[in-house]
């Protein structure tokens, strides 16, 4: 998707891919097949490039720092990127910047498991146990109903040799995401704040803009994301995943306040709606930012956009994707489909579909159609039996 945007900007990309059939490698002529944890592979992909950037956060910080020392222009730079790589580093920095975050503590090793008991005494159960690095799509995040459960999960995560983060389970009203971009020149641009809907720790739907979000709260979320982008020195797209809390929190004020869950410094799932729903997609904006171009207009092109992820079915259907697409377009000509060229595996994000709506009052219907379309593409089954009702 970044490559699609690069074509229009007259830029060429070189991609580091783990295998020749990786999604990005399928569409890019200039591919280095190698590992993102191997310094020589990273050097090969960076050689002669104007800028090196990322579509995930798993390149080890030490290697990114080495590349910078060797003169590679890395965006975002490692001093920013580390806050998207390590949840403990991020929690501590945000707390130091006076940004509201869930109450948390760190367990450094198997000798410190008693810290969980102390935390539970202060904050209570249930708790959330997180591995500090390497998680995605809810992997490395577990809900613990009591101290014994939390200790058991922490013991398992600590086997990786990394610290574990324990935090309060926040009573969520819903989850939001504030997506912004920042250029080295210092320009910032914010898209409308969106609502993200998760199922089993995986994002399944995004609604842009977040329905019913008071203007002041939306503006506060955008300002927070722009401030963080500047304070952390982010270059490129920054997604700030937010919890809107359900209950008044003594320290944080009235209901409807926001806590930061985590940061991503790359095009993010909560920004996929921008490919069809905004004047500038997050992929183009990320390129503009890392190239230090002026940023694009982040306005929405429709009153409401719904994005639904296409998640691999438990058992991939026998009907081919080509035929599924054919049927989808016959029923829903307005569906904007983006497939990633990935092999179908249960729960894997295989693509996404955007729907634009002319009237926010139609949101329930739009969400229903997006859900049905995504389910059809992964399962070859219409959840409503097959009739397209009342378009
Ligand atoms: N402290 C918490 N209280 C309540 N729910 C939480 C908490 N932390 C995480 N969650 C839930 O788990 C989901 C995944 O958590 P988190 O974003 O930390 O993990 P991740 O695997 O890194 O996510 P991603 O899918 O964004 O890569 C959140 O979107 C939220 O639904
Ligand atoms: Mg997350």
UniProtKB/TrEMBL annotation:
Residues 91-291 form the ATP-grasp domain. GO terms for biological process: 'de novo' IMP biosynthetic process. Its EC number is 6.3.4.18. It catalyses: 5-amino-1-(5-phospho-beta-D-ribosyl)imidazole + hydrogencarbonate + ATP = 5-carboxyamino-1-(5-phospho-D-ribosyl)imidazole + ADP + phosphate + 2 H(+). GO terms for molecular function: 5-(carboxyamino)imidazole ribonucleotide synthase activity; ATP binding; metal ion binding; phosphoribosylaminoimidazole carboxylase activity. GO terms for cellular component: cytosol. It comes from the Bacteria. Gene3D superfamilies: 3.40.50.20, ATP-grasp fold, A domain, ATP-grasp fold, B domain. Pathway: Purine metabolism; IMP biosynthesis via de novo pathway; 5-amino-1-(5-phospho-D-ribosyl)imidazole-4-carboxylate from 5-amino-1-(5-phospho-D-ribosyl)imidazole (N5-CAIR route): step 1/2. Keywords: ATP-binding, Ligase, Nucleotide-binding, Purine biosynthesis. ATP binds at residues 87, 130, 167-170, 175, 261-262. Pfam families: ATP-grasp (PF02222), PurK_C (PF17769), RS_preATP-grasp-like (PF22660). Belongs to the PurK/PurT family. Homodimer. Catalyzes the ATP-dependent conversion of 5-aminoimidazole ribonucleotide (AIR) and HCO(3)(-) to N5-carboxyaminoimidazole ribonucleotide (N5-CAIR). Catalyzes the ATP-dependent conversion of 5-aminoimidazole ribonucleotide (AIR) and HCO(3)- to N5-carboxyaminoimidazole ribonucleotide (N5-CAIR). This is N5-carboxyaminoimidazole ribonucleotide synthase. It comes from Mycobacterium shinjukuense. The gene is purK.
